[in-house]
Amino acid sequence: MSGGKIYKFVQTLQQRLQQQCKSEEKGIIFGFNSENNSGYCIGCINHHDDQEQNSIIEDIPPGNTLLGAYFLGSFDEDSIVDFCSELSKDKKSGKLLVYQFSENDEKEKILQFDIKSKKLTEYQIEIVDYQQALEPLIRIDLIVNFPLNLSFEDSAVTTNLPSIIEQSKSWIFQLDKSSFQLNNREEISQNKIENLYNEIEQFDELQDLQIPGNMKKKMIEKYQRQLRNQKSSVQFKLLGNSGDEKSNNQPDKLENNQNYNFDFEMKFAYLLPMQNNLQQLYKIFVNSSNKMLKSLEKYFSNKLEYPMKMPKVLNFFEPSNYTHIITTVYRDLDSPESYKQQRKLLHLKFRVPMSRPTFKLANSLEWQQDSLSLSSGKRLTNVHVGLKSDIKNGQCFLVQGKYSYYHYNQDNFNDSGWGCAYRSLQTIISWFQWQGYIDDHKVPTHKQIQQALIDVGDKPVEFLGSSRWIGSQEVCYVLNHLYGIESKIIFINSSNELLDKARDLIKHFSINGTPIMIGGGVLAHTIIGVDFNQSTGDVRFLVLDPHYLGDEDLNNIHKKGGCAWKPITFWDKNSFYNLCLPQIPDDF
Predict the structure, then answer these.
(1) Which domain holds residue 533?
(2) Torsion angle, alpha carbons of 335, 337, 339, 344, to 10
(3) Are residues 120 and 203 in the same domain?
(4) Which end of the chain, C or N, has fewer beta carbons within 10 A?
(5) Which of 420, 476, 563, 580 is catalytic?
(6) Structure pTM?
């Protein structure tokens, strides 16, 4: 293997290939090449017997390339050679990595296929963490907005999409906060993607500053270096192709015998090597836009049932699960069965486990201008980020995913002194909403929570509208009644027993990852993490405090203990406590 290519295989991809391989299956492995003769294998696509090899290669996420093939189950050498030969029929030379795994003997076998000689030889791969694979990449966002004309008349559909597809070959893209424009000019071909940071000139921090030009230039260069060091995402938009203001009202549904003229927006996200040149970036923008436009054209031509739901272009990215962006278009979203089937196909296609609702709408990527949850006046999300425990050499186990922080007196509703458990419950429900388990995006009010407890027979009708406290058991009842979510209850006679339950909480965060409500006496809190030193037994609990009184300011929340790492002494050793551990449903 001396002097050969080094294949760095992401560990989560290895795990996904070794899971759920009851029957024989084959497919492709894709990734990207780095400057040091390394190929990062970051994803896979399942191949169906009735599918042409060219078709599966076209499904590789933009910016990635074919690196190899995988074979799960019993495949003989001839079958492997035939598949690899078909995949590489347009190439005269080169290599393909071959990954084999059989569940029967739980062994993996690594080979390399030589395209020219059609020979297989044994090879080696280096297993790497997904974060290492992300190191050479930056995220680039693209917004494509164009005037879409649609005319429906019985079985005939007329669109301007063929014209838009033709125009796309000469599109120009504008870099956000910059005068830089990306087009198909030859002179930009050698510039690298990482140099885009040097083109960003507009910074909010400098807008109202009256400073000399040379000082402003130095400050701009400083901010540009910061963006580069942080590998901040950059954003482009299609230049000057939107319609007038009257055409901006996109309908939710399309009816027969109607004409429509509105701006349609497609958002794309890419993870690309910083060393790629801008000519490659331009081709990626045009080709991925073109592919999506053709998909939309096909949809409008074939879908002749009215009313017709507008399709949505969505991007998904869950790096600890799959280390690449998946862009898709969802159709017929008003049909729960169709929506579920489209999600299922994505799970199967990219071999993503069906244990979580990864591809639900709620889990699609947010855009820079959409991510306003941490701005003033908004309810904050994931307020624990940046907080560190004082445990030395401990291991942290945290809530998985996003939640909204609910606390006293939000929404102009005074529940100080009695509403802590309600707020903890609202935080838990928000977690299930953010992860896509709950499609209803409205968190229940205190009254609605009380009504749910009356409906299940836990409380009398006089409970509605009262200021009476609830506990962990009631939280479990509400979760189950409103959303069908099961919970595990842990009873402890004293806060000191929490030390004995630390491993139970660690297991919970590792498997379920949901916030935990703990209630005792007249107080309730939300546990969202555990830091545990296995050698010393030292433990800290990451606590969201619903008793926080203050505005939605992250610094204030941290300063006043709204979210903080707490020792066992935070709770009263003379009180008993109940913990509600919500379990994730078996749903994709």
Answers:
(1) 395-582
(2) -170
(3) no
(4) N
(5) 420
(6) 0.80
